[in-house]
Design a protein that fits this description.
Layout: E1 8-10, E2 13-17, E3 22-27, E4 34-39, E5 46-49, E6 56-60, E7 64-69, E8 78-84, E9 98-103, H1 108-163
Parallel strand pairs: 2-9
Antiparallel strand pairs: 1-3, 3-7, 4-5, 4-8, 6-7, 8-9
């Protein structure tokens, strides 16, 4: 099944550089009835690792079973599982294994090109951030200034309109002489 058996496998994930040694330990009450399996991530196939070779060794103790790969290679990528001996296609290893990722060595040019790419991405992100922050702010300020200028325009226009006479209020000019008597002045009482 997919449940983890009564074993404790250590570590759960290993990422190491090519040609480095790696060690996996499986603690169990019955380590002599356990063995190591290798499973590919994108495949249903599993491989039995039951004997020592020039590339790896398996050591069984009273409390654990140790698996060591002396110099890892890219083909060692996969999931290593400690489970019961003699598993078949019908009874597959459990999924509680240790994932191994083999990392490559980087040379100076690869590191510099990665750093240059990171710097370029940071600069582009900064420019986009400034653009996406400044455009809404400028649009908001432009809208506010338009509202202020249009409000002041309406206030000044409104005052001018109220102070002006309309067409109906304008009377035709007549040359009429004032009708006051001699000695009277309109400003005098």
């Amino acid at each position: 099944g997919s449940r983890c058996p009564m074993v404790h496998q250590h570590p759960r994930y290993v990422a190491a550089k090519k040609n480095m040694p790696v060690h996996f330990i499986c603690y169990s009450q019955e380590p002599h009835s356990m063995q190591w399996y290798k499973m590919q991530e994108d495949s249903d196939d599993f491989y039995v690792l039951d004997h020592n070779s020039s590339r790896y060794s398996i050591n069984t103790n009273a409390d654990f079973i140790n698996f060591t790969i002396f110099r890892i290679k890219y083909q060692d990528n996969g999931i290593y599982v400690c489970d019961s001996k003699n598993l078949t296609a019908e009874k597959r290893p459990h999924l509680c294994g240790t994932e191994l990722r083999v990392m490559g060595h980087s040379n100076i040019q690869q590191i510099q090109s990665r750093n240059t790419l990171k710097d370029a991405i940071i600069i582009i992100q900064s420019i986009l951030l400034v653009i996406f922050i400044s455009i809404p702010v400028l649009l908001f300020l432009d809208k506010v200034s338009d509202n202020i200028s249009s409000t002041s325009f309406f206030f000044t226009q409104g005052l001018e309109v109220e102070q002006m006479a309309t067409y109906e209020d304008i009377t035709p000019f007549r040359d009429v002489k004032a009708k006051w008597t001699v000695g009277e002045h309109p400003g005098e009482e």
